[in-house]
């Protein structure tokens, strides 16, 4: 029967189906680990999504937009004016950055699409793209889709936290470097780049005439120090594409509303790619996010304070369970070293953890080109209810007799 084709038969077209640029990436670890969590009834501290939805008023705003017929048909390609204005006002209110909502703001389908479209728009085949390693998993795949060559600069643990080596960054720049892809606050390490580090990056970008794409989706989840947008530094506005999103800030990761802010020229370039990928992004949600961005300061403060307490709870529990803990200054995640537990292979450890104590985590090695560099490190998400974290800690303590 035709439907019983064996795996020995050549695929239709006579060559591997998946194009060569993507074969190295396979399926993301998050799918494997979330399936494992479901199968074993484990607490899933793998993927970074909150287990409690964002503000009720924002949810209601989305319902109202749907009912009132706002955004149910193709919204404008740049995003609805209400949201573009709210994004511009947000950048002024929190970061002192002035933007023209008509020419300097582009709404995207999450930060994920913003990253993809910015890279597709700005990278020519053969261009080198410097990215901080360990990196968010879509970076490598999108650089590859754009035909670019990724050049990792590795953050390393020292004195209880991860740090960027500025000399290494400088040395990574070649005549073929097109751009630096930055992420601060940084997933998975929780590093928040300081003003000094950002100033050095800015000087390098200006000196070598590089563009910078900066992923700032955790801009409001900073527990230590301050988030400083690279675009706010002198001379950086004209060469920086800033990306953020509603998912992490408002605990609606399923809504997929993100945005790009930059100069009119760079926004136009990114929009040129976006128009042929999704054309427009989720209409009614855009109106809801416009309202969310205007929530009072107390909302943003409480979100941060709540997550800080959860960071402290999980970090203390992991330390008691025997892990070395790298205290994150921001984000949803804490990175640990499993070697004090007598383990050295994060992959094997994460695959066995559900059996051993019914908790799921992510091996940091998946975020590295140099997998060996990341081998003994494992990431846990703390954007979960306190009772869930308490239970996870109790289970993890069973690892040490
Ligand atoms: C979650 C995340 C994203 C994706 O954001 P969406 O708005 O959900 O597409 C991008 N970058 C980093 C670093 C993230 O952690």
TrEMBL record:
Q: Which GO terms describe its molecular function?
A: transaminase activity
UniProt keywords, alphabetically:
Aminotransferase, Pyridoxal phosphate, Transferase
Cofactor(s) required, per the database record: pyridoxal 5'-phosphate
User: Domain of life of the organism in this record?
Assistant: Bacteria
Annotated Aminotransferase class I/classII large domain ranges read 43-396
Q: EC number(s) per UniProt?
A: 2.6.1.-
Transferase in keyword set: yes
What PANTHER family does the record point to? Answer: FI04487P (PTHR43807:SF20)
Q: Which NCBIfam families match?
A: PRK07777.1 (NF005855)
What protein name applies here?
A: Pyridoxal phosphate-dependent aminotransferase
């Amino acid at each position: 029967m035709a439907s019983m084709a064996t795996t020995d038969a050549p695929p239709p077209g006579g060559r591997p189906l998946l194009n060569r640029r993507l074969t190295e990436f396979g399926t993301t670890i998050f799918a494997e680990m979330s399936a494992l969590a479901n199968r074993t009834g484990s607490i899933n501290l793998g993927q970074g999504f909150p287990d409690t939805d964002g503000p009720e008023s924002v949810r209601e705003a989305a319902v109202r937009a749907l009912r009132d017929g706002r955004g149910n048909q193709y919204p404008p390609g740049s995003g609805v004016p209400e949201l573009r204005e709210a994004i511009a006002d947000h950048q002024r209110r929190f970061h002192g950055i002035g933007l023209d909502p008509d020419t300097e703001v582009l709404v995207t389908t999450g930060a994920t699409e913003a990253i993809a479209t910015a890279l597709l728009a700005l990278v020519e085949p053969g261009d080198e793209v410097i990215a901080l390693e360990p990196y968010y998993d879509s970076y490598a795949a999108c650089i590859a889709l754009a035909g670019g060559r990724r050049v990792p600069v590795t953050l390393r643990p020292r004195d209880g936290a991860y740090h960027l080596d500025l000399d290494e960054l400088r040395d990574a720049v070649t005549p073929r470097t097109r751009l630096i892809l930055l992420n601060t606050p940084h997933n998975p390490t929780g590093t928040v780049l300081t003003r000094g580090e950002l100033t050095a990056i800015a000087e390098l970008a200006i000196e070598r005439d590089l563009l910078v794409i900066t992923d700032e989706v955790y801009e409001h989840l900073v527990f230590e120090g301050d988030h400083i947008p690279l675009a706010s530094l002198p001379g950086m506005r004209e060469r920086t594409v800033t990306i953020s999103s509603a998912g992490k800030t408002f605990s609606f990761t399923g809504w997929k509303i993100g945005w790009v802010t930059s100069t009119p020229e760079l926004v136009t370039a990114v929009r040129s790619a976006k128009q042929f990928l999704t054309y427009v992004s989720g209409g009614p949600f855009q109106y809801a996010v416009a309202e969310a961005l205007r929530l009072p300061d107390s909302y943003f403060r409480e979100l941060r304070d709540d997550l800080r307490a959860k960071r402290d709870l999980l970090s203390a529990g992991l330390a008691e369970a025997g892990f070395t803990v790298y205290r994150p200054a921001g984000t949803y995640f804490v990175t640990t070293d499993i070697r004090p537990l007598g383990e050295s292979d994060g992959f094997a450890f994460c695959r066995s953890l559900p059996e051993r104590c019914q908790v799921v985590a992510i091996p940091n090695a998946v975020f590295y080109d140099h997998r060996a560099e990341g081998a003994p490190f494992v990431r846990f998400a703390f954007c979960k209810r306190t009772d869930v974290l308490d239970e996870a800690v109790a289970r993890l303590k069973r690892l040490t007799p």
